[in-house]
Automatic annotation (TrEMBL):
UniProt biased composition (Basic residues): 269-278
TM helices/strands, residue ranges: none
Name of the protein described by the UniProt record: Transposase IS701-like DDE domain-containing protein
Organism superkingdom: Bacteria
Domain Transposase IS701-like DDE: 19-265
Region described as Disordered: 236-278
InterPro entries noted in UniProt: IS701-like, IS701-like_DDE_dom, RNaseH-like_sf
Pfam families (UniProt xref): DDE_5
Length: 278
């Protein structure tokens, strides 16, 4: 978006940002938040604070840096306000809630969660951050609804690195399906209307995610790996024997464990798992 396009959009953008600005607290933080959004819309391949300030005709670089690095506001409150704006326009009881992850290329090692890992936009493994996003889709349109930054295990276990990067103590390692399920549960708790949950094989291959979606009372359409193992019938749970001589074979088996040899069926081609709630 060039300067003229941004100026033409500014009245409408200001009205939109009016709903979010108070959530940033102090007046100067509200001003910086507006500048930051406008700088992002201005475009450019690199989105550093210096470049954003330059795009906004020489904005205050140091104060913008302080706003991003040490400014205090509640991202939860901002996301809740965003969801309210989305539902005013797109709400539909038959909508779909979709999970997907994406990567953000990075040059250094200081950004939270950065490491060499697969990045969808790059199509390869490279130095990047990865986040899981929730997308809301109805017949009226679609947009992002929520997000969670993925924190790799080595980051979660490195206390010194966490402290230096400012990772809150309560943030622990969670898999991408676990992050997605937490966002879906939050959406349900807030009363976001949707019937369907969608995702690729990262989520379709996760029993935790699939069972969690069913417990939320939602239907799902998920990709599944070609070699995914499934039960062809209801597995028999054998109660454990009591008393001396109890054998391992007598223990109850989880439907998601390998169970007896031959109890699994291997798919010979890619498929989509479809399952109705209830």
């Amino acid at each position: 978006m060039d300067e003229q396009q941004l100026l033409a959009l500014k009245p409408e953008l200001d009205r939109f940002l009016d709903r979010f600005a108070p959530l940033f607290g102090r007046d100067e933080n509200q001003v910086h938040a507006r500048r930051f959004v406008q700088g992002l819309l201005h475009g450019g391949e690199r989105r550093s604070i210096e470049n954003l300030a330059q795009a906004m005709s020489g904005g205050p670089v140091r104060s913008l840096q302080a706003f991003i690095s040490t400014g205090v506001w509640s991202d939860g409150a901002i996301l809740k306000q965003l969801r309210g704006c989305v539902l005013e326009v797109l709400a539909d009881d038959d909508a779909a809630w979709n999970a997907d992850e994406t990567g953000f290329p990075k040059k250094g090692t200081k950004s939270v969660g950065v490491k060499r890992q697969y990045s969808g936009p790059l199509g390869r493994t490279d130095n990047c951050q990865v986040a899981v996003f929730a997308d809301y889709c109805s017949v009226k349109g679609h947009t992002s609804l929520d997000r969670r930054l993925f924190l790799p295990e080595e980051w979660a276990a490195d206390g010194e690195r966490r402290e230096e990067a400012g990772v809150p103590a309560g943030v622990i390692f969670r898999t991408k399906p676990e992050l997605a399920l937490a966002m879906a549960a939050d959406a349900v708790a807030e009363g976001v209307p949707f019937r369907w949950v969608g995702g690729d094989g990262v989520y379709g291959d996760s029993p935790t995610f699939v069972q969690g979606v069913r417990q939320l009372g939602k239907r799902y359409v998920l990709d599944s790996s070609a070699d995914a193992r499934v039960w062809t019938g209801e597995p028999q749970v054998i109660p454990p024997r009591s008393g001396p001589g109890r054998s391992v074979a007598g223990r109850a088996r989880s439907p998601w464990s390998s169970g007896r040899p031959g109890a699994w069926t291997r798919w010979s081609r890619p498929c989509r798992r479809r399952r109705g709630a209830g």
